[in-house]
Design goal:
The complex is a heterodimer.
Chain A lengths: L10 H17 L6 E6 L18 E6 L5 E3 L2 E3 L1 H12 L11 E6 L4 E6 L2 E6 L5 H27 L8 H10 L4 E3 L8
Parallel strand pairs in A: 2-7, 7-8
Antiparallel strand pairs in A: 2-3, 3-4, 5-6
Chain B lengths: L19 H15 L9 E2 L5 E2 L3 E2 L6 E9 L9 E4 L2 E3 L4 H10 L10 E6 L5 H13 L4 E5 L1 E2 L6
Parallel strand pairs in B: 2-9, 4-7, 7-8
Antiparallel strand pairs in B: 1-4, 4-5, 5-6
Classes of the chains: A alpha/beta, B alpha/beta.
Amino acid sequence: MARKTPEINSSSQADIAFLLLCFFLMTTSMDVDYGITRRLPPPVEQNDEDVKVKERNVMNVMVNKSDRLLVNGRPSDISMLKDLAKEFMTPRPNDETAPEVEPKTFGEGIGEILTSKGVISLQNDRGTSYAMYISVQNELARAFNEMKEELAQKTWHKSVSQLNEDQTKALNEAVPVRVSEAEPVDYKK
Amino acid sequence: MARFRKEGKKEVPQVSTSSLPDIVYMLIFFFMITTTMRDVELKVKASPLPKASEIQKLEHKALVSSIYIGAPRDSKLGTESRIQLDDAFATPADIADWIQKERDSRNPADIPLLTTALKVHKDTRMGVVTDVKQELRKVGAFRINYTTLKGSVLEN
C-alpha cells in the first residue's frame, strides 16, 4: 500500500470564512442611491427687476402648510397634477387662454415644431411636508417625461431610453423642463 | 454470494462539509461587492425617505456629499428636524464651510460635478429644507439630488 501524504485539515476554513461573512454582513448597508436630480438656480441679486411674464404663460402651483394643492387658484389633487401640467404645456395655437406658442427648429430629425412659452411656477410654504414637495416635483417631472416620450415616439419611433446621445440632447432642447421655483415666502406672516 | 459482501463495519457516511467553505465564500463575495462602508454615524432619522417614480441613479458616489435632515435619534434632543453634516448636528450657517471643506478634499477638476444629496425624512417641514437650499445656492453648489425611494407618489 502506497503511503498517503496527510491532507491539510481544512475544517477551520469554514470558520474563517464565517468570520469574514459576519464582518461584511454587519458593515453592509444597501444604500439607496436613487433620487430626483435638480439644478438650483443661481442666487438672485437684490436689485433685480421683476421679469414680466404674461399671465397666460404661467401655471401657478402652490402647496400650503397642510399639504393642500392649489393650481391656478383652484384646489386640486396630486393625482391630477401631471395631466394638468401636460395639458398646460401642450402647444395649442388657437386657444387664447393657453400659453403662447412659438415655432422652433431642432436638429436630429425633429424639425420645426411648436413650442410652448409656458412656465410652471411652483411655490410652497415653509410648513409643507417634504413628502408632498417631492410628490409635486415628481408629478411635474412625469408630465415632461411623458411629453418627451411622445415626441421621441413620433420622431424616431423609439422610446427615450433607446435614443443615442445626440438625439437625447436634441429632445431635451425641444422639451425643456420649464419649472421655476418661486423664492421662498413665509405665509405665516 | 458472500464473496461480494464488503468487510468492515456498516456506517452511515458523514455528510461531507468540504463544500461549506465554498458556499460561505460565495456569500462573502456577494456582501463584499454590495457593501458600502457607512462613513457617518446617523444622528438624525432620515428614513423613511419619500417615494418618487421619476428618479435617476446617483452616479459617481465619490463626488456625492450627503446632508441628512430629520428628527434627532436621541429623543432627549426633542423632535424638531435637525441637519446633520458629516458626524455632527449643524445649522444652515455651517453649510458654506462644509461645502468648502468637501471641495478642498476633491480634485479641483471635479468641483463642478460635485453633487449634494439631500437625504430628508418625508415628514420634515419644507422650511428647513428651503434654508439648506438657499445656503447651497449662495455657495454655488447647484447640483442637488433629492434622494428618494422607488415607488408611487400616491404612497407618500
